[in-house]
Amino acid sequence: MRATDAPAGLHRHDYATRDQLAEALAAGVSAKLAGGIATRGHASLAVSGGSTPKRFFEVLSKAGLDWSSVMVLLVDERLVPPDHERANAGLVRRHLMQNRAAEARFVPYVVDGHTPAECARLSQAAFEQDGHRLDACILGMGTDGHTASFFPGGDRLAEALDPEGDDKVLPIFAEGAGEPRLTLTLPPILDARFVALHIEGAEKRTTLETALGGTDVDAMPVRAVLHQTATPVHVFWAP
Ligand SMILES: O=C1O[C@H](COP(=O)(O)O)[C@@H](O)[C@H](O)[C@H]1O
């Protein structure tokens, strides 16, 4: 691991390989979850979808935790049927909810049978059922500068990024997103006890440097996470 200079509140962790990154991130998350279980009797984890987290999920799924005391949620979801190949819930079921982690309680978003607004309302109720604050929230990032489903041009981006907003889950639509989405809003993400941004590859490194080098949040919504100073954010990267 190599620590690099970063703005205050941003901690950068660079690894030589994606396997090393997966091991380190899984160890860090596992420690946070163990801490939650030890102090409160339960712990919660929100994870992202896409293609990047598979290796991390597979390592984390083998962690020696009391997984029956862990709730797993999604940072964001695509509004597609639950068995659709692009469903983030499917990725989590296939790669995280296995091995020891099969004992955890997975609470996916409500994605069908309702309007997007209703899906968001029902999903938020599930998110709030334990009245909890997330122990760990693992974000991803696209090369367009989106994180969670905060896409450039998102129709409800301002609401989703409002630090004073009351909604924890919102429906959101953006041309570049592929399909309508549900997303955690910025407040519950930044309220997590541990926030990580997990990115891999040279292209995403360039995207990260671009995001750090400018301040236009609408152009690159990940800046809302990177440039705030209230919550420490740990950036995990490997080539
Ligand atoms: O659409 C999404 O993309 C991002 C990044 O995905 P990746 O495939 O580039 O790793 C992901 O963080 C988000 O959860 C997902 O819905």
Automatic annotation (TrEMBL):
Assigned EC number: 3.1.1.31
CDD domains: 6PGL (cd01400)
Pfam families named in the record: Glucosamine_iso
Domain Glucosamine/galactosamine-6-phosphate isomerase: 17-229
Record-linked InterPro entries: 6-phosphogluconolactonase_DevB (IPR005900), 6PGL (IPR039104), Glc/Gal-6P_isomerase (IPR006148), NagB/RpiA_transferase-like (IPR037171)
Keywords: Hydrolase
Protein name stated in the entry: 6-phosphogluconolactonase
Organism field: Oceaniradius stylonematis
